[in-house]
Amino acid sequence: MKLSRSEFALAALQTVAGHSMFTNLWVDNVDQGDGICVRMRMDPGSATDPINDLQSNNMACGFDGTQGVARVCPVREGAKLSFEFREWADKSRPGAIDGSHKGPCSVYMKSVDSAIKNTGVGDGWFKVTASGYDSKTSKWCTDMLEVNNGIFSYIIPYDLAGGYYLVRPELLALQEADKSPPNPQFYAGCAQIFLDSKATALPKDTVSIPGYLNITNPSVLFDIYNPQWPYPEPGPSAYQAGKSTTCEVKPLEKQTEGLLPDNVEMVNANWWGVKLDNYHTEAGCWNVG
């Protein structure tokens, strides 16, 4: 299907933002809550901006993504993980990404010692799923995000070892890839999870982020207005349980970080408040503070 630039320009004028960000992690079709276990940009004015520099550390977990958050979501073996993208982070308006933004989606995982402390930058990433262009429907993955209320999903490979992981959904928008210089636009973030599994496999073949793509790769230079099919999938091939080359490791049996305390009274994203001791005097007030 050949698309006109005028169609894309008209769509782009209908929104000021026109961009997207990963805001919510869903586990087995249950929304964990706005921002919970998700690293995201703290500046609301630029939170949905794209990543343009493919060699930037922002490619790993997004803007401000080298800093972990306080929550780590527990996930069962073989769970379904879903990632909600929003054009407006607070969902004050509907939409996942502007219609002019066409391109593929991918999900990567990285086994880490600490889901909170690891920056995400560097080697250890492996792809677990990808969706590009569907020639039967003439739809890109980004088109299907709108149909699916901004949600992209996959099933965790059944043989992955138990332990902490960073999980990285990625969108690539190609509407300016034909420009000079080319301007492919990435939208990525990281969820922090603990995989509760007795399995023992980890992929041997991993990639570094940043570094897994560069500006000369055909997948990031693809001209959506004059496409030469098939679309070349960006990055490595996806890991396949029971088929890909693995190494055996000892699974981590128990989650010890990122859990809510028993006496929690209030939760707001990755912040929580606990119940304070009763007091009746000024000294008691200072003590609980």
Automatic annotation (TrEMBL):
Signal peptide coordinates: none
One GO CC term on file: extracellular region
Record bears the keyword Nucleotide-binding: no
Record bears the keyword Cell membrane: no
UniProt superkingdom: Eukaryota
Keyword list, A-Z: Carbohydrate metabolism, Cellulose degradation, Disulfide bond, Glycoprotein, Polysaccharide degradation, Secreted
Physiological role: Lytic polysaccharide monooxygenase (LMPO) that depolymerizes crystalline and amorphous polysaccharides via the oxidation of scissile alpha- or beta-(1-4)-glycosidic bonds, yielding C1 and/or C4 oxidation products. Catalysis by LPMOs requires the reduction of the active-site copper from Cu(II) to Cu(I) by a reducing agent and H(2)O(2) or O(2) as a cosubstrate.
Protein name according to UniProt: AA9 family lytic polysaccharide monooxygenase
Source organism per UniProt: Diplocarpon rosae
